[in-house]
Amino acid sequence: MSRRSATARSAVLSLSVLCALLAAGCGLGIGPAPSAIHLAVTRDFGASALSHSGPLKIVGQETDMGLLERNYTVSTRYGGGFVQSIDGLAGGQEAGRPVDWFYYVNGVQASKGAAATNVNPGDHIWWDRHDWSQTDDVPAVVGSFPEPFLNGLDGKRLPVRVECTNVPGFACQTVTRRLRDFGVPAAITQAGSGGAPETLRLLVGPWVDVGGDLDAASIASGPRSSGVYARPSKTGHALALLNEQGQTARTLGAGAGLLAATRSEEDAPVWVITGTDEAGVNRAAGAFNQRTLASHFAVAVTPQGQALPIPVDESQP
């Protein structure tokens, strides 16, 4: 477990215990219910969804835990701080590997307990039960797009900057246009133009050019460093796709693309739309849309244009 994960889990537990002591159903209060909320519950890195019938039930100022409990059958542990099971699907051990429930708000792994976090208007809240034998820290995911660009983090909308190696090129213009189609006022700059505190950054360009960025470089070291189950080669001309156990399941060469997100400490997440070459970057940019990214932690694009969720599910053809 990383130092950041241990600290976050300790904070989650402390907040949850305090919450339970203060009031039953902590965080549920009077006031209007937040609007445009999306709740997703999946398993195995988004591979399949738990069924839910009828409209989403939300009452007043809801907490993330309250929202989940109102719409699914939930059991908890550690004084209500962690979800043990949803609709009977529990954490624990599966095939000798640890599995548990993790949750993400607007594409970022939550740093506070669900019982201590209020739902904000527009939030995309995503619970997923998956194997964490490789890492319990997947700091950012792409599957809640257009979040976090549309509504930001913790109820605060952040500036968005698209940093491109080829500003007038197809990939840069496509990514920027897709954001603006959602009403996101994204700025465009040349890659490597400097830091951007509290800014949501999208790096667009071949890995050989963007992989040296301090925020993106961790992807090359695999999921324990970045939470991304893919590993570009040192030259950037090949892309290894990993399974849940961190093993290489497939390697892509020329014309392959990657869409992934990561995060360093409490900084804003950084998205990478990259590839083994310019053609791969263009394919990745073409896949930068809600339909392709939905409920996936990251996505690779083959030279033939097929979008592959990663980590790779080797049970699928």
What does this structure look like?
The protein is α+β, with helices and mostly antiparallel strands. It has 2 domains: 3-131, Beta Complex (Ferric Hydroxamate Uptake Protein, Chain A, domain 1), CATH 2.170.130.30; 160-310, 2-Layer Sandwich (Chitobiase, domain 2), CATH 3.30.379. Helix content is 19%, strand content 27%. The protein contains 7 helices and 19 strands. It has helices at 3-22, 64-71, 170-181, 207-210, 223-226, 278-286, 290-293, and strands at residues 38-43, 48-49, 74-77, 82-86, 89-90, 92-94, 97-105, 108-109, 124-131, 160-164, 187-190, 200-204, 230-232, 239-242, 248-252, 257-262, 270-275, 298-301, 307-310. A 7-stranded mixed β-sheet has the order 11-10-12-17-16-18-19. Helix 3 packs parallel to helix 6. Mean pLDDT is 89; it is low at 1-29.
In short:
By secondary structure, this protein is α+β, with helices and mostly antiparallel strands. The chain is built from 7 helices and 19 strands.
Please describe the topology of this protein.
Blueprint (H helix, E strand, L loop, with lengths): L2 H20 L15 E6 L4 E2 L14 H8 L2 E4 L4 E5 L2 E2 L1 E3 L2 E9 L2 E2 L14 E8 L28 E5 L5 H12 L5 E4 L9 E5 L2 H4 L12 H4 L3 E3 L6 E4 L5 E5 L4 E6 L7 E6 L2 H9 L3 H4 L4 E4 L5 E4 L7
Parallel strand pairs: 1-9, 10-11, 10-12, 12-17
Antiparallel strand pairs: 1-2, 3-4, 4-5, 6-7, 7-8, 7-9, 13-14, 14-15, 16-17, 16-18, 18-19
Task: Give a quick set of tags describing it.
317 residues; alpha+beta; Ferric Hydroxamate Uptake Protein, Chain A, domain 1; 2 domains; 7-stranded mixed sheet; 7 helices
